[in-house]
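Hey,

The postdoc asked me to send both predictions to you directly instead of through the lab channel. I've kept everything plain text so nothing gets mangled by the mail client. Protein one:
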Amino acid sequence: MRVVAGEYGGRPLKSLAGKTTRPTTDKVKGSIFNMLGQYFEGGRVLDLFAGSGGLSIEAVSRGCDQAVLIEKDRSAQAVIQENITMTKESGKFELMKTTAEQAIPRLSGQFDLLFLDPPYAKEQIVANLETLQARDLLADQALAVCETDKSVELPESIGQLQQIKQKTYGISKITIYERQ
């Protein structure tokens, strides 16, 4: 795994050994950012199930200002910390060592880009996105990128979020919502 493009482009990323996380492949990561638009002009990122932190690091590499990464697994937290150190800009990243459900009430401000790749996809994605909206944590036109197994069917809309793109890559499906 590596950072695909931007300021940190080409730098290697560590990933977690074993089956506790499912790292997004470079091909899928590149495709996600092609769907979103290659680069960003600022904005805040929230990664609710950060794994190795690769998606958030990619977003900051491509121009986002700051990323908040949430991860409960201790081994994954260590990998995220190493990957953040690799950027040499650790001030742009905040790692919250807890579950998404425990972290959301502690969040403040608004986020422009969200990544959700939870272990129990549909129920968790819908519940998390509803809670984030109820707490007014999504900026206008915020984008939510949901990665699931290809068999998971997410709703067309979740509160103010409307599904705008969906694409399947092998066993993974990427669904993107935009706040209307």
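Protein two:
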Amino acid sequence: MPVGFAAPDADSRPLHLIDAAGAEAFVAALSPMARRWIEAAGFTGKLGQFALLPGADGAPGAAVLGMGDTAARRRGRFHVARAMDRLPDGDWHIATDLPKAEAEEAALGALLSAYRFDRYKAGSAQKARLKAPKGVDAARLLAIAKGEVLTRDLINTPASDMGPEELEAAARAIARDFGATVEVTTGDDLIAANFPMIHAVGRASPRAPRLIDLRWGQGGPTLTLVGKGVCFDTGGLDIKPASSMGLMKKDMGGAATVLGLARTIMALALPLRLRVLIPAVENAVGGNAFRPQDILTSRKGLTVEVNNTDAEGRLVLADALAFADEEKPDLLISMATLTGAARVAVGPDLAPFYVDDDALAAAIGAGGAALADPVWRMPFWAPYEGLIEPGIADLDNAPGGGMAGSITAALFLRRFVTETPAYAHFDIYGWQPRAEPARPKGGVGQGARAILAALPGVLNL
């Protein structure tokens, strides 16, 4: 089933959302037959409890989902999505009045619960479809959901079918759909165009490295999104062990997320000028691979000592960020599956982000809360600047010591943004390690909805 809402005028059955405090009164008000059904199911309003209620013909005519209490609901999100795979085939509507924010989260969760990655194996489609609750912007939520579907599909696709060329094709497909333009610099042309670190990281792969440059919009403030597009990461000559290489198809999660966000922005026709830059490479092992202790000269002119070829993401992002910074956009955002240190710090569910501007940080945090996209601000901690200065070159791509790895990576990237006053960096995971409501195990977008919600206030749209 494609992601979408039921038609507004479709006949539909009610889905009641009942918390623990209201369960007794709800059950008491039911007809005797319905009461027997729900009592047989042991319904108490506990979060996630589900029961069907009989219609006049004895077939299921309604459903009820337990919503628990406030404490239980705080331990997760998209709770209404828990019902979607258990509802019988057909159209449904939420029969409980909800505040607007809760109605939006319920509707978005219902949309995202329909996602299936079925490129290689057919799966069982979700049979139920929910009507958009009254008072929500259904078109906006659908645009958000379709952007997230794109992100998930790109991340879930294995590297055999999602290399730099295929990532370019995905960007071109979005551009065709929304009237954007795409320019791509590929292979040895990266050297002539002064993207030396993108070329160095990707040159060992037979799949040519490239910089993808998508532009859309004719007027308004300027927003540039930069996404790490490492389509597979062996670690290079500092090769990863098998246990660390298993999920490296997702190392282009930053690129997938900015493309999903770009699709949403274009679908909503936001009044801004959008640019998306994706350095797309495969970090491979070969005789011409870049080496530990090599010193690379970046587009910005800063020299970088390579102390670990597995810290390649910041190298390709650095050239792309320097290129973006030359235009001085009103807002510049980078997104990358950059460090394991970020996962140790905040786990897989939170998207840590770095920003100097307190107002921008507050807007992103509020946006994440509004659209069920949790983020967490981390510090550009200036006292650690010395850790990324090796002495033999301007910068060190992999400081030793094993501490503050996400912070030092963010500080490294900030060195390449000197002309743009508003810059934020997201160190995302891009992967759902276990199934949760509206989020099956696999690729997932992080931070995009938070950014989207922040844009109107930040850019005065």
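Summary for protein two, as requested: The mean pLDDT is 97.

Thanks,
C.
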